[in-house]
């Protein structure tokens, strides 16, 4: 059993897709398949269920993944700490964000004006299996994870109802969410934070949203609202500056529609000096950001 095999195994386990894993690792798919097969031969059991369409961890694989991640985390922490002690340039900060994509570029730009040598590896998805593969995660709170994590809130924002500017309700100053029960909704894809919040708030009000468009791209959602194709629940701060003149944001009187965005990190993972710098900067940045909006 080789270290490289274990690293490849973790990547395949997180993607559950051989082609995407090979692309991330920058090796050929046949070479990756041979490496995984060799690892399975070494441990004496199959770690994945395979069909012509997918590859998926089985019970042996999930158990093995948990232990391999713990072992590699210890090795990774040791290497990171030694680099910090020697004052060597840090590896890129692995930053995952599942919310606030509209404000992330400005946050990163402001930080790198102060720390231009610090670089980032960005991703927008959290793996389905295993330990989170990030140094820091910006997401909606509370965050549920099987790993030991710590969190710090960054901001709490209102959720408005976004409607086309020529909508019959566009001249209203506020609305009760139940009044939108008959509307056609536009939303992010199922599994996203905002989609889950949309469905939860509508159910709380007594109806299921009639979702006619779903997308994994927030700009598409905003564009479809402006084109008169439906309405959407819309975060006031992290999306607010991107609404455009063709849409209107209506405050919701009831129920209380808010969400809290926070930063999450794995307490079992070594936090480098550069990661700590960015974490502290992000907290100050969002504090100033929300103060300016008051």
UniProtKB/TrEMBL annotation:
PROSITE patterns: HTH_LYSR (PS50931). Residues 1-58 form the HTH lysR-type domain. Keywords: DNA-binding, Transcription, Transcription regulation. This is LysR family transcriptional regulator. It comes from Paenibacillus hemerocallicola. It comes from the Bacteria. GO terms for molecular function: DNA binding; DNA-binding transcription factor activity. Pfam families: HTH_1, LysR_substrate.
């Amino acid at each position: 059993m080789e270290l490289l095999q274990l690293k490849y195994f973790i990547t395949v386990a997180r993607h559950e897709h051989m082609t995407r894993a090979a692309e991330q690792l920058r090796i050929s798919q046949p070479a990756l398949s041979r490496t995984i097969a060799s690892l399975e031969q070494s441990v004496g059991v199959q770690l994945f269920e395979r069909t012509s369409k997918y590859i998926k961890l089985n019970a042996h694989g999930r158990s093995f993944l948990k232990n391999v991640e713990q072992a590699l985390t210890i090795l990774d922490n040791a290497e990171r700490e030694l680099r910090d002690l020697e004052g060597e340039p840090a590896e890129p900060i692995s930053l995952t964000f599942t919310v606030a994509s509209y404000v992330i570029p400005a946050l990163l730009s402001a930080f790198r004006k102060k720390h231009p040598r610090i670089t980032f590896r960005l991703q927008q998805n959290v793996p389905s299996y295993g330990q989170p593969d990030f140094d820091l995660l910006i997401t909606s709170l509370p965050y549920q994870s099987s790993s030991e994590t710590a969190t710090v809130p960054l901001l709490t924002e209102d959720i408005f109802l976004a409607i086309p500017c020529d909508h019959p309700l566009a001249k209203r100053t506020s609305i009760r969410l139940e009044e939108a029960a008959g509307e056609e909704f536009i939303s992010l894809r199922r599994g996203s934070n905002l989609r889950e919040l949309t469905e939860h708030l509508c159910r709380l009000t007594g109806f299921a949203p009639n979702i006619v468009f779903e997308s994994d791209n927030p700009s598409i959602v905003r564009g479809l609202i402006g084109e008169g194709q439906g309405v959407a629940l819309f975060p006031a701060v992290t999306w607010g500056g991107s609404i455009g003149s063709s849409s209107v944001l209506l405050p919701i009187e009831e129920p209380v529609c808010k969400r809290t965005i926070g930063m999450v990190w794995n307490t079992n993972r070594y936090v480098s000096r550069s990661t700590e710098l960015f974490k502290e900067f992000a907290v100050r940045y969002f504090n100033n950001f929300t103060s300016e909006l008051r």
